[in-house]
Amino acid sequence: MNLSLNEAQAKILDNILQVLLEKNGVIFMDDLPPLSDAQSSQKNVKIREYEPYLALMVKHGVTEIRKLPMGGYRILSIPAISEDFYRQGGFQNILREQQRMAKENDEDEKLRRRKLFWEYEISRFQAKTKWWPLAISLLSLIVSLIALLYRK
Fold first, then answer.
1. One pLDDT digit (tens) per residue for the chain, 152 residues
2. How far apart are CA 122 and CA 119, in angstroms?
3. Against a cut of 0.85, is the pTM above it?
4. Which domains does the chain have, with CATH numbers?
5. What is the tally of helices (H) and strands (E) in the chain?
6. Can you name the residues that pair with 97 across neighbouring β-strands?
7. Residue 75: which of 85, 83, 65, 67 has the closest Cα?
8. Cβ neighbours of residue 35 under 8 Å, at least 6 residues apart?
């Protein structure tokens, strides 16, 4: 699954996952530390801050999120998947993989542009010189025919 992450997001997502695993697979919004300043300890502000991160975790299939009737969320780990995912590097691993893929794509793009440049240069050269080989071959054909006829 292609999730575009930055380093700060990956760190926050891994922290959520770590808290989730430490609390035996079930946490509430109150269990999570505030993300920014002292105001974020208010429940509504904390919910708004964490919503995009929780959505990313659900999209990746690491957790299940259940909205509570009184507000907030209950975050559940998916047995075996969440723990294996965290042990294999979590979202930091996804970030490293994305960075590696971006680097490969940049290198591929450079090679493609370089190849295109040389194809253009070769086609320009061929366009400039396309009649020379034909003229030389016709001239050599005429010379060889004359030499063949006068040889007898």
1. 456 788 888 898 888 888 888 888 888 887 887 777 655 456 677 778 888 888 888 888 888 888 888 777 888 888 888 888 888 888 999 899 999 999 999 999 999 999 999 999 999 988 888 888 888 999 999 999 999 999 86
2. 5
3. no
4. 1-152 (1.10.10.580)
5. 5, 3
6. none
7. 65
8. 12, 46, 49, 50
